[in-house]
């Protein structure tokens, strides 16, 4: 969700900090994850919540966000382990592709 709090923030950073998606992208870059993308979700809902629509000027705090990380299974596991505090309210889906590239 767009308004998901980021663990460990204090003061003004807690109030005005970046989104969780942005924090996850920064963490992925720091760990040299091969590819990281935050998708712009135009509309959607999570776990039976109401349908939310995104808008450039205002984003509902419960608006869905989607971050995709692509790398080796070991590197993704390392990312998940090192960033566990950021992932407490996140649904993680893992998919391993076949041995051929598309």
From TrEMBL:
Family: Belongs to the UPF0166 family.
Domain of life: Bacteria
Full protein name: DUF190 domain-containing protein
Entry's transmembrane regions: none
InterPro entries according to UniProt: N-reg_PII-like_a/b (IPR011322), N-reg_PII/ATP_PRibTrfase_C (IPR015867), UPF0166 (IPR003793)
Natural source organism: Hymenobacter lapidiphilus
Pfam families for this protein: DUF190 (PF02641)
